[in-house]
User: Fold Membrane protein from Microbispora corallina.
Amino acid sequence: MFRTLGRFAIRSRRWIMLGTLLFVVFAAVWGTGVFGRLGGGAGFDDPGSPSVHADNVLAGPLGRYANDVVVLYESDHLTVDDPAFAEPVKRALAAVPRGDVTRLDSYWSTGSAGYVSKDRHATYAAVQLRSPDDQVRVQQLRKIQDSFAVPGLTVRFGGTTSMTDQVNRLTLRDLGLAEAISTPILLILLIVVFRSVLAATLPLVIGFTAALGSLALLRFVTLFADISTFAIQVISILGLGLAIDYALLAVTRFREELSSGASVDAAVERTMATAGRTITFSGVVVAMSFAGLTLFPSRFLLSMGYAGAGTVVVAVVASLTVLPALLKIMGTRLNPARVRVIDPTTGRWYRVAHAVMRRPLASTLGIVVVLVALGLPFLGVNWARPGDWVLPANADARAVTQEVGQRFAADPGKLVTAVVESPRALDRGALDAYAARLDAVPGVNGARVTGAAGDQARLTLGYAMDPMSRDARRMVDGLRAVAPPPGTTAAFTGMPASRVDIVDMVTSRMPWMALFVTVVSFVVLFLAFGSVVLPVKSVLLNLLSLSASFGAIKLIFQDGWLDGVLNFVPVGAVDVNFPVLIVAIAFGLAMDYEVFLLSRVREEYERTGDVAESMARGLQRTARVITSAALLVAVVVGGFVLSGITFMKMAGVGLVIAVAVDATIVRGLLVPATMRLLGRWAWWAPAPLAAWWRRHGVPEHGHGHDAAPAAPAEVAPRPA
Assistant:
């Protein structure tokens, strides 16, 4: 099938390139319109959670009671009692347009001393905006923000709406910064790795096509679903990353075939029969890894699933059509005289593989112990949801939270809202009694009824602790354990309650995603290799490489290791969305490299029948491809390490570690050791499955011919 696809690409190369050009133009015009159709915000919340239900009720007649924006006024010399401080602030607050403002409270409008800092050199205004939608509130804030300015005073904006606005702005800035830093480095490395300027253009062509095609697919999805603004990040990272992987694999194989004396046409056909098959299987695994994200109901993870799977599909299709057409067009120019194919029995990785396989049990145990030890710190992880903690320490929203917490009696942004619903009219006395019981929950700092509308009531509660702390979790659990008035139901919202619901949603569905990805990987690898042992081994080894990344992330971002080097302020927690994204991206890339390696090992094994030799030769032939691809992918995502947004930095560091560990320690050392331990059993399948695979599987054709290989089950299993 794949050889036939190569022949088709050779014969139809001009039509393929013309069709690709038209598609790219269409995607550039229509697909880029997705930027105007992306849903507001990141969409971290579970739409079926109690906190979102409470938000939906508050969006109705009952209304919200929240301090969306906290405007902090400060002076080093003046106090709020000085007319030079008070009068300009009062004039500014009086001039703020009220069209989008539901409530604006200050020291002068309420007379409350709580609005004044302990040293009386600062005060704040608490603003509630009209819209129930967070991104609409961002737009409302931007329209009135300049009205709060007071010459001579330091004015800073905090609260959830300001935080969202600042995260949006910094994310866009950091995306541009990451690309500006990584792109020149990537271009240089592409030329070095491909050892040809012409060959280095291939991944750029495939990556550009994949990225624009993914935007077109994503815009189509927006016709039916609300997509998070963060989905674009996956497209930019994954499109180029996969293009590099696939182009490097195909060009390397194409050069090998040319060096062995094959004609350009024969080399293209052989490349598609081998590398094309590998690309297809690895692409299916990566796409299914992202499809697993659709098991989560949050818009953020759903969007990542749609964007990731779509990008993979476009990258694979481009690699199976555009890439062989380009190989035919460029021909022998992709294999200049200075590029030579190394003898697979003389290279460094060949020697490393044999060294590891001389003591396979000791090597396996030693590496497994190291990787497990690296992952153990992750058992003490404290989960968080994105909040102002993701901002740099000097960002206004984060600084305001710290200033208010240290200098004021209470933080106006730290509120939890309880929504009480009843099938009949609510009794005010029962509500007051319920508020008193809530006020007794440890961590609650005042609870009162702040609104009622028919059969609904709103209670507002203050708190003082970090909303991402374990104490906040205990407070929310305590609030939900308090019985509401008889015949009523209660739901809580606010940052602590939202964080609990998001964490519960992710942690409860993560095992199902892991099961889904495992089953799909097993099926795909079985179809590729006809073995039931290899899929199990591959999944276990990939989990080991992920565990090392997870442990490092806990030590770095929760415990504060390397915080000075990486320039962030730890908050004692890790974003709960992080492991889900890393599993989808890093597990997919790990399977990518696994299929690259095992396809070549299988090919050598069919030719020689020698377990150790086929492993060593396969590793030598693919090690440069895998390590080079990993290096280039690390450069693509490495720009995010410099981001000021902590969760972007977290994703960048996590992916770099996961890819580096997998491409070196796991593929270069652990895979040879375990394959030597398994011996011929690695290719084993029960007789019924082996018979099914001989009829319906997609085998790797023997070198230089189209004859089907001997099925794994036909080789009598025995220890190596």
Remarks:
- Confidence is low (pLDDT under 50) at residues 702-720.
- Residues 160-194 form the longest helix (35 residues).
- The two ends are 33 Å apart (CA to CA).
- Strands lie at 69-74, 101-105, 122-129, 154-158, 383-384, 415-421, 444-453, 456-463, 489-493, 574-575.
